[in-house]
Structure formats: structure tokens, C-alpha cells
Design brief:
Four copies of one chain form a homotetramer.
Chain A (H helix, E strand, L loop, with lengths): L2 H12 L14 H16 L4 H4 L15 E18 L4 E9 L5 H14 L3 E12 L2 E3 L3 H13 L1 H9 L6 E10 L2 E9 L6 H18 L3 E4 L12 H6 L2 E10 L1 H8 L3 H18 L9 H12 L6 H4 L3 E7 L2 E11 L11 H10 L10 H26 L3 H8 L2
Parallel strand pairs in A: 1-3
Antiparallel strand pairs in A: 1-2, 3-6, 3-8, 4-6, 4-7, 5-6, 8-10, 9-10
Helix pairs in contact in A: 1-2, 4-9, 4-14, 6-7, 10-14, 11-14
Amino acid sequence: MTETDADDLAERVREGKLRLYELEDHADAETAAAARRRLLAEETGADLDAVGDYAFDADDAESNVENMVGAAQVPMGVVGPLPVDGSAAEGEHYLPLATTEGALLASVNRGASAIRTAGGATAEVLKSGMTRAPVFKVDDVREAGEVSSWARGNVDRLAEAAEATTSHGELQDVTPYVVGDSVFLRFAYDTKDAMGMNMATIATEAACEVVEAETPADLVALSGNLCNDKKPAAINAIEGRGRTVAADVLIPHEQVEAGLDTTTEAIVEANTRKNLIGSAKAGALGFNAHAANVVAATFLATGQDAAQVVEGANAMTTVDEREEGLYASVTLPSLEVGTVGGGTSLPTQSEGLEILGYGGGGDPPGSNADALAEVIAAGALAGELSLLAALSSRHLSSAHADLGR
Amino acid sequence: MTETDADDLAERVREGKLRLYELEDHADAETAAAARRRLLAEETGADLDAVGDYAFDADDAESNVENMVGAAQVPMGVVGPLPVDGSAAEGEHYLPLATTEGALLASVNRGASAIRTAGGATAEVLKSGMTRAPVFKVDDVREAGEVSSWARGNVDRLAEAAEATTSHGELQDVTPYVVGDSVFLRFAYDTKDAMGMNMATIATEAACEVVEAETPADLVALSGNLCNDKKPAAINAIEGRGRTVAADVLIPHEQVEAGLDTTTEAIVEANTRKNLIGSAKAGALGFNAHAANVVAATFLATGQDAAQVVEGANAMTTVDEREEGLYASVTLPSLEVGTVGGGTSLPTQSEGLEILGYGGGGDPPGSNADALAEVIAAGALAGELSLLAALSSRHLSSAHADLGR
Amino acid sequence: MTETDADDLAERVREGKLRLYELEDHADAETAAAARRRLLAEETGADLDAVGDYAFDADDAESNVENMVGAAQVPMGVVGPLPVDGSAAEGEHYLPLATTEGALLASVNRGASAIRTAGGATAEVLKSGMTRAPVFKVDDVREAGEVSSWARGNVDRLAEAAEATTSHGELQDVTPYVVGDSVFLRFAYDTKDAMGMNMATIATEAACEVVEAETPADLVALSGNLCNDKKPAAINAIEGRGRTVAADVLIPHEQVEAGLDTTTEAIVEANTRKNLIGSAKAGALGFNAHAANVVAATFLATGQDAAQVVEGANAMTTVDEREEGLYASVTLPSLEVGTVGGGTSLPTQSEGLEILGYGGGGDPPGSNADALAEVIAAGALAGELSLLAALSSRHLSSAHADLGR
Amino acid sequence: MTETDADDLAERVREGKLRLYELEDHADAETAAAARRRLLAEETGADLDAVGDYAFDADDAESNVENMVGAAQVPMGVVGPLPVDGSAAEGEHYLPLATTEGALLASVNRGASAIRTAGGATAEVLKSGMTRAPVFKVDDVREAGEVSSWARGNVDRLAEAAEATTSHGELQDVTPYVVGDSVFLRFAYDTKDAMGMNMATIATEAACEVVEAETPADLVALSGNLCNDKKPAAINAIEGRGRTVAADVLIPHEQVEAGLDTTTEAIVEANTRKNLIGSAKAGALGFNAHAANVVAATFLATGQDAAQVVEGANAMTTVDEREEGLYASVTLPSLEVGTVGGGTSLPTQSEGLEILGYGGGGDPPGSNADALAEVIAAGALAGELSLLAALSSRHLSSAHADLGR
């Protein structure tokens, strides 16, 4: 970074010769960011020293952010080891969590310990598919029916167009939904190790051209919210988006008492009245204690899209008193993760994936993202067990008083 | 950080003399984190140089994270200036956004530009209250009715107990809900400039002691999921949690065409078929295009709880073709923000708040958090306008192709 | 009925001199109905002898139907006696059920028998209030905030206007909700023994005039769907509409086995996996087995509005294995019933209410509708118990095979 | 009916020699019903003359009701003619509606008139399938995945077992859903002209035996609430149950003004703020004005299951201002109707179907039920148009004041 250049750039913005987003056209990314910090300091009085003290090459973030000024730094810790027997994940894992919520890691760690003592969690990716659902306009419900039928009968042609745009993605299916003169086509793709939303968007745009050419339907919006991205929606909770993944564990009753300081019976009661009945009464789409905490913290630590925590929160926690012990499970129907693309190649996030051992493309393709999903599910399970245990022994509040703010 | 000490600590963990979470008992936070990085490198092969290159004092993060190894760094940029005429926010703002999703800032910036040209956004905090809802067990529905009546009639006594635990929080109300032999009491607090969840939890625990002493109800869990924290739930979308805040703008038709490259009519159509009809068909609790993107990015940039993006996504976007122009609004019923506590005092996050000018406690108390909420709402509005414009001119996919991955 | 007149009327319709809905202006209701049957027979070939063979005076149905041709006859039976210890209901009841679904009464009767053996059900009206929520349009979110504040501060004035239209109804509260430039005011009324929707509508219309006179808000629709009438909606499931009523029972374990041919444990498992987990996964607002069956059948038998079965289905069934036995409850948050007005004074429906002993206005006012709600809740409980028992012993299908179609 | 026998039967019940539900074992259905009326009159004081004055042969109702005492009589009228151009329905229809809600028929008739003037409604069955979803228990999420895969791969074997139980039904598909150790298999059937729930139940029970024999899954309940029958649930609103049917119409602007006394613009505004925004804010699964009214009234008039009005209320109404006029549509995703079985063969209900011309089995099979669904959709459209028109001209309240109670 040349100091002079940042000063110079800032001056040209002040003079109205450049706009704030044009700086990268006239300097390298470091310099542009420095110039912006300078201008912001002047205009707002904010000292941006910490924001400017980032540990990556600004050029490498150009595909992740515009108008860059630096970085937000979120404390990262680890919990574990967490043994996971998954369809793709295997063995012990340290799970990186980035968060500002005190007591969270301590809580998840306690759950991980209980799982470890019980011999580990089982995890399974049950379904996988990234969706994009454009909305079209037609003349009337008759035509809506015809377009739907056409789409059902021409998945091959749509696949051909869609897959021409991508070297990795495969169209799995197209499901039509009709509301009056609006037709929604929900495209689902296998996007391998990528979270895949942009891949799905680009592929679907190509498929939409076929729909428009072959049917009377007119595209209104490339996303018609039946996808559904970053909004709480039953369609994701029911049909899934990204990975549908579940993890579970069976903990002997005496270990529940020794390791979690409560009883199987008390955990069952807390789960039933809080996670099932309470959530039901709240009109919820997520029946869990705090799965979003683990989803958010692992997403930040591994370069996932933080806004997709929304769908990650569509989780259901179940517990069952079995003869052999406490059975507990967490099912996340719409966990959208990738190990390539997005924020995964930024240095700290890439290192987060390295801690897990699932960075980059997997072999076979998709297996790294599957494994990541399974470990997150097991981490969410640890978090659920720990919070249910704390609640059932009335520890929540004091835990926060001790560890948090 | 003393290298020797980190080595030594690591050695003691290897030898089984210390556990990973006990390191801070034997060394300062920097050293403990370094020791953990060393151990992880050995066990997982992960090089944690970037994670370890953080720009804050590890001791200062002790209330935010346990088992710390370093930090995740998320690229931060700014959009704006965004003029906001709020009940607390006032004037032009640069909005800091931390994200790894390429094209997001460019998109929001385009919307901010449209709002600026139109004279700015109006914003308003419509309701405010942080909730916590314990669940109690009673004998039967008769007793459930009695406990509910008792709670309705004894808010003053509950307030006395609750408020004894906090210097800032004020109990606003207690609403009982009954399902069979489960009684939920939803406590709502004015927590001023703090997001307030922990304050609400601690205060509610004290109030629960009164409930248990004065009624036959037995506490099952201090949170009974009618709060509802970090899960998508209609109760938050309907009744609000944290700040219920809205922002809107009126953009002359010709500016819609000049600045957003589309027409008022096309935006209305996209909003109706996507955000209203599509969301309805999806069984959604969020009727918007991508409000969660702005919520997540501002939350990361200003030290909010990333998992509460879930509730932030409960937003509704409306547009209306008026004679004078395009009216657009975003209403976020459950935006949970604070300018003190949580992650807000970490250096980069504190600087994020400084960019906005709303760091720390406001005058009067609560006004800084109100202002923050209003600016986020205006930012979400900018994001909605831009994406609706892009969709209605079929730009979404190509925008991603150009700018993102 | 004069045959000649019906012929004559029919002839005048054929000649285009009268329209089908004008017949009552030219003849008594019996004759008009007969004329319509004649015309329909000619036009459609349908023989309407049974439809025309109704057991009430057509004139008495003029406030219930227009263009009358006769009546639909729905088989009615009774179950019981069902002992109910309610806040208003007391003692043993025969519950009239009108249905066409074979096996339903046998099933409910089996549940009633189990409740009777266990000493009866407890029932309680937990909340009561009929709502109507008009939607207004304002200029912007600032004005939305002002109108909301005004409404919160002027409930007395709104009550004065509203209550001037009714001799019975009392305005309980007005709750504002805002989405952008739409303001919804949810008015809640105590309507005593009337279901009260029309009373609420008329009273609210008067109150709306005050709102429009005193604030800048413009009424868009007298019902803005936050009421919410006859649509499945979380606001009713959470906040209630009409009566929020619950019933429960404690059945000794050995009676579960003897009377219900299953075990407490099996019922708990069926309820958890079906009514709680299954409903949650389905994105449901009703967590029960078939409460709507009992609601629909009692509504038909007692003159309630059949379309309000929709809200009645928002029920939650819970069961709990207690030391003393199986605890089971049903909570119906939005059961809209009346014992005066609507269809309650038609002969067969009035007799249905007589079977229960709660026809007409109660003493004190409201107590008859409360009692009716409590008995329906107890009946729903009987239905839930019986179906859960059947499912848990795999009897559902064969029960239908034996008794139904 | 023999008077003596009824007296005699009643006496034997009084003496404890017979139970109320055993009377049909000792007398014909008429006599048994008479005996019950006598007993009820004694015990409750209720005079059941009207209930006992029914227009069908009690023996013919034995598959529809147990413990029969008579019938509830619901006033029936007709609206129309309503021209419907459907995939199965064709031509003008008089629509029979049985209701106790004054003003309803007048309202629907006004809408039907508007549709007629505009040349009629278009209607289309978009999807068809009756579902039943048993819930099974497995050991862990691994096994859940295996059972799901097995089910996906063995639809043929399941079809063979299921279809062996029925001469009409055809298994269309089986969709697995997993939550922890619960596996739900949603079976969908083509049940032709029958509503088909019992057929689906019986067939699914047979298929469950195959599942249990071939996989480690244990059946917990033959219905696991992902069906979802008679509860408001997103899965029905999204994926459909019974018929997914839509109807629409295009009304020239001047006819909106002449026939509906309002403007296209005012209807669009009312629909957007009430049916879309208001419903969204209410957390609704039904985005309409009062579709349930028409569904309930036609269900009663044609022998459908009144409790299934719940799913019928999952309807969405859309309107659009087009150049040529007002476009309006109603889409009912889960309308469960039949023209054979259930209550359809009872005399008054059979006559109700005759008025429409769709009684009994269709040619081809399923076409009568399709046609019935289409006509109900068109009727619902008429109701929506009329109420939206009334609301947008503020007529709702006064319409009720004039015509109703």
C-alpha cells in the first residue's frame, strides 16, 4: 500500500472526481480500502485502525465484497474433539466456532464431551439439492396448468440448458407450483462441494429461456421465493434446501447424570414442553433450543453465507427415553454449506475448514460439503444437549452471569 | 505472548495434565490461544497463521468466546451515504457491511443511491421489547387458568423481582399462554441500548422464583420457546421482539427508471408475485427479497449476535404505485440490536458502530439502539429496492456472474 | 304453501319477469323455495324431494339463507354421558354430533367412556374475545407510528363509538399492527353468549369512523385479515379468537389398558411422533389428531358457523405419563361459538343445544357460550384419546373398514 | 317405526340391560333413533321433534353415523347460474349452498352474476392425490436414511400391496421425510371420484406391512400428521391434498363498476392489503377473504366431510389490474371432494350433487370429482369477488345489518 496513493485517491473523492466505489479502478485493493478508511475517518470521526488491520490480501477479497474498508474480526474458538460417524464425515473433529456470544463455546463443548463419552454421534446427509424457483406469468389457470405439465414433461430439455452453464452442477428435478396466473418452477441441483446458489441461479436463467421460448409463460423474476433463500419458509423445512442432515446420539442414563448434571427424564420434559409444545404454540418453523447458534458460529468460522443461518435455524430436536439411555437427535432440513467458493477461500475461513479437514473439493465431489454438514449437525446436537441440560437444571441464567455479558 | 509459555501449555495438554478449556487458568489469553493453535496444527495439520493474526487483545474477548484460537476475519465495506429521517437516527449514514457474498454491497449501494436521490428514507421504531418466556408445569387446565390470572394481576410484583437484578431493564408486561398443563409467561423488557437477552434472562429467573413461591406452578425451563430466540416463529413476526422497525421511501417514477433501470410497474409486479404470492405459497414468515443479507452484514459489522439474523429475516417488503412515484417499505418486526454489551465493544465492531455514530449508550438511553435499528431498516430497504429492480430487469444472474462467484 | 303460487312464481321467472332471488318479495318463503325447486328440477333434472322435506318454517330461516330451496339433512347422533367440570359447564352431558363420517361417533363415544370412568374431564375457558381488524392506509411509516400510538391511547373513545352500536358487546382492547403504510387495528370484544362476529363488525365500523375523523388514516377494508376469520392463521393460534378453551383428564394406567386397549406409553409415543413431531414437520398450526371432526360435528348440531371449523382446528393435544396415570389435554385457542344468534335458533340446532342444556342466553351472560365451548373441548379430548388409542394399537384402518365406508 | 318397540328399547336402557350404542342390534335404525330421542328427552328435557323429523331412511345412514337420534337440518339455497369452463366441468351451474350465515348466498350470487356477465370462469384441476403418511420408528438417523432410500426404490412393491386392497385407488408416489428417529412416508393415491381418505388409509396399512417386513422400521401410527388431514398445515398448502384446483375470470373494468359497485383499483388495493399483506402479518396459511364459507356451504350441500373445510381454507386469492380488466383468481391447493362414498349418497346431499349434475362416478372415473372441485373453486371465486367488492366500497357491515343477524 502506498500512503501517497491513498491520500491522493481520497482527495479525488473529496473533489468529486471519483466515487467511493470506483477506487479499485484506480489503485490496488489495499490502497482503495485505505483511502476509504481515511475518508470515513474524516466524515464520521471513526478511527478505523482495527478494521484496517486485517490478515488477508485485499485483492483476494474482491470477489467477496465491494467498497471494502477492511474486516470485521469475530473471535474464534474450538470445541471438541467431537467424534462423528457420518456418511462422509468420519472420526474425531475439532469444531471451529466464531462468535461474540459468551458461554456458547463452553456450552457446546460440554455437549461435545457428553457425546464423546457416549461413543460419538451418528450423522447422515438425507437429501441434497440447491434450489432456485423463478416465477412466470401466464394468461389464466388453464395456461398455468399447461406450463406446469410442459415443465414436468421436459426436465431433460431444461437440464440440457441449465447444465450448459456449469461444469459441476446437475439438475435433479423441476417442480411446478401454481397460484392463479403465477407459475413457479422450483429447480433443484446437485452442486457438489459448492453451496451452489449462484450456480443454481445462472443455470436456472438459462433454463428460463427455454421455458419462455417453448411456452407462453413470461418470466417475472428469476427468484420467486419458492426457492426459498434467506427467509424462514415451510417449504425449506419440509422439502429441504442445500443439505438435509441429521445427527444423533444415545447416552447411557448414568452418563446423563454424571456428564450433564441432569436426568434423562428432565431432558425429555424440557424438550417436550419447550422445543415441541412451546415452539408449536409460537407458530415456529424451528423446533429446537438454539441450533442457530452453532450454525452461525460454524458458518462464520468456515466461510459460509451468514444470512443463510436463517434456513439453518429450521431445525428439529427430538429426545426419547430409551431403555439403554437418552436418545437425542437434531435434524436440519435446509443447511446450505460449501467447501469451495463463496467465503471459503479467505484465509481465516480456509483455515477454519482445515481444522475440520474438509477444505476444498472432496473426493468424490460433494463429500467434503456433506462431511461439513454432518459435523455441523453433530455440533448443533452438542449445543442442544447442553442447553437442554442447563435448562432442566435451571443453569441457563447463572451460566450467562458467570461467563457472558 | 511468550513463545515458551505457549509451548509449555501445549505440552501439558499433550501430557493430559490440562484440558483445552483450562488454559486461561494458567496463562494469559494470548498465550492460551497460541497454545491451542499449536495443538490444532499438530492434530489436524491446519496452519492457523491467519486465524492467529487478529487485531484485538485476546483478554478483551474473554467475555465473548471460550477456547479461543484467534479470529475469523470477514471483509467489511461501506455503502452510502444513506440519508435516514428516523425517530432516533438522523442525517446521512455510511453503513458498514461485513460479508463474503460478492455483489451484495454493490447492490445495496445502488439502492442507497436511489434512496438518496429521492431525498432519503423515513424510519421509525414502532415497538420495542426484549422477551423471555419460561414454561411452567401445573396440575391441570384449571390451575393453568389460575396461574395465568395470577400473572396478569401481579405484574407489579414480578417487575419488582425482575428489576432488582438490573440497573437498566424495565419490565413492560407479562403475557400468559396456556397449552394443557404447560403455562408460558412471556416477559417483555425495555433494555435500553442493550440487545438485552441476557438481562431479560436473569431478570426473568428472579421473577420465576416469585411465580413458584406464590402459585402452584413449577418451572420446567427458563426459556419455553415463546420468547422466541433464534428460531423462525410467527410470534416474533406478529408481536415483535427487540425492535419492531420500519423504513420507507417515495421515489419519483422517472428516478425509478433513471436510477434503478426499471419501472415502478415492473417493481410492483415483481414484489407482488415474488415477495407476497411466492412467499405465501412457500409458507413463509418472511415476505422479502433478501433482507437477511443486510441484517447479517450489519450485524457482523457492528457486533450483534449473528444467530439473531434468524429473527431479522421476518421482514415484509411492500411497494405501491402512487401517483407521485414508487412507494417502498420494509418492516422488520423482530430486529434485535444493541450498541452496548455483547460483541459491540470488540475493536472492529466498535469501529463499525463508530462509522454510524451510534456506539455506546445513547442519550436518552435506548436512542442509540433505536437509531441503529432504523439505519439497518433503511439499509434493508436499499437492498430490497436494488434486488427487486435487478430481478424486474432480469439482472440478478448477470450481476452475480460479473461480481461474485 | 300454495301449489298454484309456486307454479306461478316459477312461470314468472321463466318469462324473465322475476329473478331467482326476488321470489320472497312476491310470496312467502315456503312458496318461494318450492318455486325454486321446480325451476331447478326443470333446468337440471334434479329431483329435490328430500331437500324440500325440511322440518322448519322457511320464514324462520330468512335471516340464515337467501335463495332457499330447502335443507341439507346431516345425520345426528349423541355420545356420552360426558362428565365435565368446567368454569361454566357442570355435570354430565350428552354431546350431539352431526356428521356423515362413519365411525366418528363410535370413536368419540369410546373416548367419552374412558373419561367417564376416570371421573370426568376438567375444562376451562382461558380467554374470550371476538376480534375484527380493519386495515387502514397511511402516508408513511412515521404516520403509521402516530396512528398506532393514537389508537393505543384512545381505546376509551373507540369503545364509546363501538359500544353505541350494540346492547351486549363490550370493547376489550385495540391492538395496532403495522406493515409499511398499512395499519391494522385488532379490536377485541366480549360478545357474551353470541359468537359475535357480526356484532364486532358493526361496532368496529363505527369505531373506524372515529379513527378516520381523528387521524390521517384511510380505511381500506373493514376486515384486514388480522382478525382472522375462517383462514388458518398463527395469530389465532397464538392470541386466540372467540373462546380459548382447554379440557383435560387424568386416566389411571390400568384404565388406559382396560378401556382404551393400549398403554400410556404407547399413547405418549403416538402423540409425540404424530401430533407433535409430525405436525411440526408438516408446518402445521394444529397439533392434534382430529379435533376438527368433533368441532365440525358439534358445530353442525348446535347451529354454529361451519366455516369456523377452520379456526377450531388450531388445537393442540398433549399427553404426559404421570405416576398416577395418563394425563391428556386438548387446548383450542380459537373456538368461536355462541348460544344465541346465527343458526342457533333453527329448530334442529336449537334442540341440539337443548340436549346440552345451554340454549339461549346464559346467566350470567356469556356463561352458556362458555359452557358450550367447554363441552366441545371435552368432546374433542374424547376424540383425541380414542384415535390415539386406536392408532397406537393399529386399529384405525380396521375401525373404518368395519364401521365406515 | 313401531312406537312400542322404541318405548321398550328405552326401558331396557333405563334398566341397564342395554347401552345406548347397542340399540341397532335389537331394533331397526328408526326405532333405535326414536328410543334415543325418548331417553334424551327424559334426561335432558330436550324436545327433539325437529331432530326426529328427518327426510331419509335411518337405515341408509348407518354407515354415516352411530348412536343416531335424527338429523341436523341446514338451510340450503342456490346461486347462479355460474358458467364454468373447466377441465371437467362445463357450462352453467346452479351451486347449492347449505349454511346458517345470512347474507352469504346473496354475496356469492352477486359474484356469480359478475362472473356470468364477464363470460364465465375458467377452472382447472392442477394436481390430484389423496395422501396418508404413517410414522415409523427406527434406531438412528443412519437407519432413517436407509429406510427412506428403500422406500424411494420400492414404490412398485408398495403399490402392489396397497392396490391389492382397492378396486379403484392407484398409488402415485411415496415421499419419505425424516426427523431424527422418526420416518414418515407420505403415500399419495389417485382415488378417482371418491374423496378417498379411507381408501388411502386401508391401502397404506397394507403397504406398511411390507415396510415393516422389509426394513427395520416399526410402525408407530398409521397417520403421522404429514398427511395432513383436518389440521391447518403448510404441507397441504404447498404440495396439495385431494384436488389442487384454481378458477379465474377477467372482468372488464366497466363491469367491475357496474356490477360490483367498485373499481378495479379499489379491489386490487383491498386484496393486496387484506388478503396478501394482512394474511402475511397474521402468519396465515390461507390468503383469501372467505373461501371457507363457500367450501363449507358446498360441502354441506353435497355430502363432503365438513371437517375438511380446514384444508379447503388454505386458499389464495389474487387479483391483477390488466389492461382489459380485473383479473381475479382463487387457488385451492387442498380441496378434498368426492362424488361417491361418504355422505354423498344421503338423499339431500345426493340431490345437491344432482343440482350440479355431478352425482356418482364420472366418465372417465375421477371426472365428476374434478368437476365438483372446479365448480367449488368458481363459487369461491364468486365469493371472493363479492366480498372484496363489498369491503372496497365499505359495504360489509351494512350488508350484514340488512340481511343477517
